[in-house]
Design goal:
By secondary structure, the chain is α+β, with helices and mostly antiparallel strands. The protein has 20 helices and 13 strands.
Length: 554
């Protein structure tokens, strides 16, 4: 006879169990059998599995980099790279201000996986390729490498981007360029150099002219910096570009990070890119060299900012691609109510919308990168401002929807989707948040009208191929004319103006270069009267199956 203990501690008789009944009970209690979960996504080649990226690389003049991109794609999609990214995110950087004896050392300690990720980026040319190669398509090839590696870790791409972008600014000072450019462009993590930025202050933000940091002449051609910076990106860099006031105004300076007056106050506790150390710093007589003309710091530093804005676009487009692949992989293997998720029309609508958004961001980004190869200054400047605003604005929305495709599994850290979601907003904030970027477009329209005309000329190349795009272009021309006549408050309408410009640019590229199913869905979902307000509301008639198959071929 069996016994059973009650909640009051007494016992009562229970019916005996036969061996077969006991075995069945054990089977019911075995909860560790895993069913209806997708297999691991990795390993996969994130380059060869991306038709839109491969086609854009060839179209924009970087076919010569195919082998390097295939190799990078294999590593980016490997289990090893994923594990390093997860470890670097989990083991956040630590600031050590003093050694055991009380000496100030201001050292940032990063996990070894961080250095593995950054080393791979540097040694594959993601910082120096265009300046070292100096061949057609070099900026496109570098953009594609950046696109692939940001899908592994967006954090390490910050020092990569700043190092890449510093070269045009340094070239205004031949002596500094001669010393530092070979180190910044070297594909050598140990013997090369990294460049960081320290621009904004606690009272200034985007209004850098409100900065209070001062530069005092020493007398030997160098300067001393006194002040603070609210954000200093990647303090372990070898050199930094910064802004400080002289008697003639805001000026750009370069200083070396081993200067004893360069003090790290604290590391920022950020929403995302948590593997990346960002610091608040102080200058206590830091010795610096002037870059560019005195009083023209903004003019000098904008040479750097334009390139980092390009990288904001690349990073956001890469993040969209990473989220799309995770969502598609999950939906193809997860079953609900007797069918795969990907077979349900509601999910097909969401996945197809995610896919066209990702492809539009990808091809627009690589088209802008080609403008940097061709020295097409009017288009480059204007398109960078427009597309930086739009692509970076779309990334957080895209990440949230991709995460939701995984349901509760996507909300769990192990999926990687929370990291993707947390990292998504940074590119919309860095180098000018939404309003700053939109107002920069308005400024460019009035001061550099050749940029607007070059941009519209690119959009007009698709005229006649899709009636919805034709109507959008006509409406855009009318809107711009009303702005020019002063009939609209330009600042109030700034975001609407930039959005319409960006959609025209993306639609034109898709109509000319993407498969008909993708171009039709984009125009239907973004330009027609049936367009929705969230992702996953594409109108009827869209060929979702073809779009999904193209996005990530089975």
């Amino acid at each position: 006879m069996g016994t059973e203990t009650t909640t009051l501690g007494t016992t009562r008789a229970s019916a005996p169990q036969a061996p077969a009944e006991r075995a069945a009970g054990r089977a019911l209690r075995d909860t560790h059998e895993v069913t209806n979960q997708p297999p691991p996504l990795r390993p996969y080649n994130s380059y060869s599995a991306d038709p839109a990226l491969r086609e854009a690389v060839a179209r924009e003049g970087a076919s010569w980099a195919q082998a390097a991109l295939e190799e990078c794609g294999a590593l980016a999609g490997s289990v090893e790279a994923w594990e390093h990214a997860e470890r670097a995110e989990r083991n956040e950087p630590r600031l050590v201000t003093h050694d055991r004896y009380g000496h100030r050392i201001d050292r940032v300690e990063c996990d070894p996986s961080w250095h593995w990720l950054l080393r791979e980026a540097i040694e594959r040319g993601m910082a120096g390729m265009p300046w070292r190669e100096q061949r057609p398509g070099a900026h496109v090839a570098r953009a594609a490498l950046f696109f692939l590696w940001t899908q592994v870790s967006s954090g390490v791409m910050c020092p990569v981007s700043m190092t890449y972008a510093a070269v045009p600014a340094l070239r205004v000072e031949p002596q500094l360029a001669e010393r530092w450019v070979p180190l910044l462009t070297a594909c050598d993590y140990e013997r090369g150099a990294l460049c960081g930025m320290a621009m904004t202050e606690k009272q200034g933000g985007s209004d850098v002219r409100a900065n209070t940091t001062r530069a005092l002449p020493v007398g030997d051609g160098s300067w001393e910096l006194w002040g603070h910076k609210w954000f200093c990106s990647y303090p372990p860099c070898d050199i930094f570009l910064t802004l400080a006031h002289t008697e003639r105004g805001l000026t750009c300076f370069l200083f070396e990070s081993d200067d004893p007056g360069f003090r790290l106050v604290r590391l920022k506790d950020k929403l995302g890119t948590r593997s990346l150390p960002s610091a608040e710093v102080e200058y206590w007589g830091v010795r610096a060299q002037m870059v560019g003309a005195e009083g023209e710091g903004v003019k000098t530093i904008i040479r750097m900012v334009n390139h980092t804005r390009l990288d904001c676009m690349i990073g956001s487009a890469g993040g969209m691609r990473a989220g799309l692949v995770e969502a598609l992989h999950h939906a193809r293997h997860r079953r609900t109510f007797g069918r795969r998720l990907v077979d349900w029309p509601a999910m097909q609508n969401v996945l197809a919308d995610l896919a066209i958004e990702s492809e539009a961001a990808t091809i627009a980004t690589l088209r802008v990168a080609r403008a940097y190869d061709e020295e097409d200054a009017p288009l480059r400047r204007f398109a960078t401002a427009v597309m930086k605003y739009w692509i970076c604005k779309r990334a957080p929305i895209h990440a949230a929807e991709a995460l939701e495709c995984l349901g509760g599994n996507g909300y769990v850290e192990e999926s990687g989707m929370p990291r993707l979601y947390r990292d998504a907003p940074i590119n919309s904030i860095w180098e000018g948040s939404g309003n700053v970027a939109a107002l920069d477009v308005l400024r460019a329209m009035s001061k550099e009208p050749a940029g607007l005309e070059a941009f519209l000329e690119e959009c007009e190349r698709a005229r006649g191929a899709d009636q919805r795009l034709d109507r959008h272009l006509a409406g855009l021309r009318g809107h711009l004319a009303r702005l020019a006549r002063g009939e609209l408050d330009a600042q109030w309408a700034a975001r609407r103006t930039v959005e319409d410009l960006a959609l025209a640019f993306q639609a034109s590229l898709l109509v000319r270069h993407a498969p008909a199913a993708v171009a039709d869905a984009f125009c239907a979902g973004r330009l027609s009267d049936e367009r929705g307000r969230v992702l996953g509301v594409l109108p009827a008639g869209v060929d979702a199956a073809a779009i999904i198959e193209r996005a990530y071929p089975t």
